[in-house]
Design a protein that fits this description.
Largest sheet: none
Shape: rod-shaped
Oligomer: single chain
Order of helices and strands: HHH
Distance between the termini: 114 Å
Number of helices: 3
């Protein structure tokens, strides 16, 4: 009886094994396609991504110019402008 029980369980377990192998094969099969598409997506830039990048660059440049203008206005207000600063109340030399 001890020998018969494991022998009878082998066919029952084989379905689980086959099902698991098939499930694993289905999970593994699209991996090369996913990897290739991820690689292509990583090296290409869509128009929307390019527009977003350009917009970020423009905003950063505008922020930099704004900071410089505020610093120049502060220097003019304190009375020690740089030669490149354009102050409204300063007479041209």
């Amino acid at each position: 009886m001890r020998f018969l029980l494991p022998v009878l369980l082998i066919p029952a377990l084989s379905g689980c094994v086959v099902g698991q192998v098939a499930s694993t094969a289905v999970d593994i099969a699209p991996l090369p396609v996913k990897a290739a598409s991820a690689g292509v997506d990583a090296v290409t830039t869509s128009q929307a991504e390019a527009d977003q990048k350009r917009g970020r660059e423009l905003r950063k440049e505008e922020e930099r110019r704004g900071r410089e203008a505020r610093k120049a206005a502060e220097r003019c207000r304190k009375g020690n402008p740089l030669p490149t600063d354009v102050c409204e109340d300063r007479a041209p030399r």
